[in-house]
Amino acid sequence: MVTTIIIITDLDGTLLHPVSYSFEEAVVALEEVYKANIPVVLCSSKTKAEIEVYRRQMNNRDPFISENGGGIFIPEGYFANQEKESRDDGYTVTILGKPYSVIRRIFSDIRDRTGIRVRGFGDMSPEDVARLTGMQLSDAILSKKRDFDEPFIFEEGESRVVEFLNAIEDTGLHWTKGRFYHILGDNDKGKAVRILMDYYKRDQKGIVTIGLGDSFNDLPLLQNVDYPVLVQREDGSYEEKIKLQNIIKADGIGPSGWNREVIKLVRRIRGNI
């Protein structure tokens, strides 16, 4: 049987270094998978605008998933029988998330009602976001071009975190956590991955998926791939909330672990074809 490998990866802290946002340490693996025509699907909490910058830098022409599964963007003509859903800048787009304006309104209502001091990206200037994240200002500007999801921080410690998160769930919205907390609709990375993989399965046989992440918000992604890989965080630890039986713990922080494990897995899978 023909085997088609597909890689689905988180960005921040996984393919990108948690401090420098560089993927330099993963270049060897990226070059190897591109030469083998293996798709690399970027699946991130980042915005479409942010992801497009990295796609250009990586010479990536594959579909991508933005804002924790809020949107799936497939380049036009990528699949033979591509459905013509909504279009955006040369992509066929599947929208799973709620509009950002709705997310922001509910977020603000919860904050006003509870009096809990929280601040979302929508409350911050690009300079604020750059200081908070360590991003370049140009990248911080792109991070504020949100469609489906609001990252936020607590400004009074962790004392009322549970109260605020429960209030989010009471509205019918959801939350997740990577580097920041996020408020979002009924979407997650796993749902988006399942939908996108259905597209691939219509076109190709014998799909085998490798998924890579580092944080709790990557759990739905890792639950929906054949080979789930957890990379080390900046301090060398692994996300303790991810406890899948078949999890592969990469030896290396962010892109270093990504590089090592992708090379190893791709060679193993291709060796068994």
Written description of the protein model:
By secondary structure, this protein is α/β, with parallel strands linked by helices. The protein folds into 2 domains: about 5-95 and about 190-270, Rossmann fold; about 100-185, Putative mannosyl-3-phosphoglycerate phosphatase, domain 2 (Threonyl-tRNA Synthetase, Chain A, domain 2, 2-Layer Sandwich), CATH 3.30.980.20. Helix content is about 35%, strand content about 25%. The protein has 9 helices and 13 strands. A 9-stranded mixed β-sheet has the order 5-6-4-3-2-1-11-12-13, with helices on both faces. A 4-stranded antiparallel β-sheet has the order 7-8-10-9, with helices on one face. Helix 4 (about 125-135) crosses helix 5 (about 135-145). The model has no long low-confidence stretch (mean pLDDT about 95).
